[in-house]
Amino acid sequence: MFTSLITRLSLGHACVDIYQGAVASLVPFFVAERAYTYAAASGIVLAASLLSSVVQPVFGALADRWSMPWLLPVSALTSGLGVALAGVSGSYALTLVVVAVSGIGVAAYHPEAARVARLAARGSHTAMSWFSLGGNIGFAVAPLMVASVIATGGLGASPFLIVPALAGAALCGAALRKIPRPSTTAPDARETAGRDDWSSFAKLSGAIVCRSIVFVGLSTFISLYATQRAGGGAVAGTAALFVLYLGGAVGTLAGGVLAARFGRLPVVRWSYALTVLSVAGTVFVPGPLLYLFVACTSAGLYVPFSLHITLGQDYLPRRMGTASGVTLGLTVSIGGLASPLLGALADATSLRTALMPLIALPAIGLALLSTVEEPVLTPPARL
Q1: What are φ and ψ of residue 73, in 5° steps?
Q2: Fewer CB atoms near the end CB (10 Å): N or C, the chain?
Q3: Around 107, how many Cα atoms within 13 Å sit in the side-chain half-sphere?
Q4: What is the pLDDT of residues 205-248, one digit of tens each?
Q5: 2-369: which CATH number, 1.20.1250.20, 3.10.180.10, 3.40.50.10490, 3.40.50.2300?
């Protein structure tokens, strides 16, 4: 039951996070077909992130109060529907609206999914890394899926992008049948005895915000930047985005294994240090070596990904839904808020100049993480 449930949750996670990656993957096509400026194109990423960022804590608080596993299939369908409608109309305003709807679906999914996954994992960092891996795979598949559909049929073919959402809803529904019916009242077994460490949680969240801005900024512009720096046209851009997302899958699995051997905080800190160097290489090194630095950046960003989630949950043992919503959702989506600023800077100067500030952010995250300690572990909750 443990393996089957984690596998289904991971695959469902992949289907949902395709739509987080799909929004950034659509940016080059909006620029090409609709002649959007960098700022306008990044505004679409903002639309997917802004509303998601606002409602994410709400869904996290609800997950603390009530068990709502039915949200998993519903939010999977909602996240896919918004992206599927993004290319149907030439209206910029309508595109922003439907992409925002997709963002709400993503926001609704993650807190409850992370709570259920943590219960199924029974405290295992490796199992949580497998759950997180699903999201990484979704991100990695997104540019390939979008490129194959949109390059063939144009933005008008975007309704075909609904297919993973249908699969995700089915997988989540199958996973729910493995979960015993919970009580509708709180608290429950997930709220075991323990003190909420809000100070450490705030520092961790600040570090994740820094990580999020780097990831979303690169996700939005790496395709266009690779075309400029490595040549090869749209293929080069799609390849760079694919490397950024695929490296995350490897990094996430490695994070669970490394944490089991060296501890969570040392692994997270080493990852942030690596990211400073690799982002600098991505920005400044031209030619094919760009892809190597993109891969290293991806690993540095994703090795700590599942560890962020479990650290947050252990810092807030009585607020698991809130911790999951923030570490897995809010601080990830909030990176999109910075995208228009990077886009405006790119329009005023160049993409290279706009990406330079991303080098400093992992260093700030590392400074924040250097002031926190490993949380005291509480007994793992049971299904």
Answers
A1: -65, -35
A2: N
A3: 27
A4: 999 999 989 988 898 888 888 888 777 677 888 888 888 877 77
A5: 1.20.1250.20
